[in-house]
Amino acid sequence: MRRARVIGSLIAAFAVVMAGVIPAVADSEATYTVTITNHTGGQPFTPPLVASHRPSVDLFEVGQPASEAIKEIAENGNLGPAITFATESSAAKHVSDAVVADGPPPPVLPGTTREFSLTSSNGANRVSWASMLICTNDGFTGVDSVRLPKRVGDSISLDTMAYDAGTEINTENLADIVPPCQGLTGVFDDEGAPGTGMSDPLHAEGGVIHHHGGIVGGTDLVPAIHGWTGPVATITITRDS
Question: Which residues pair with 78 in a beta bridge?
Answer without folding.
Answer: none
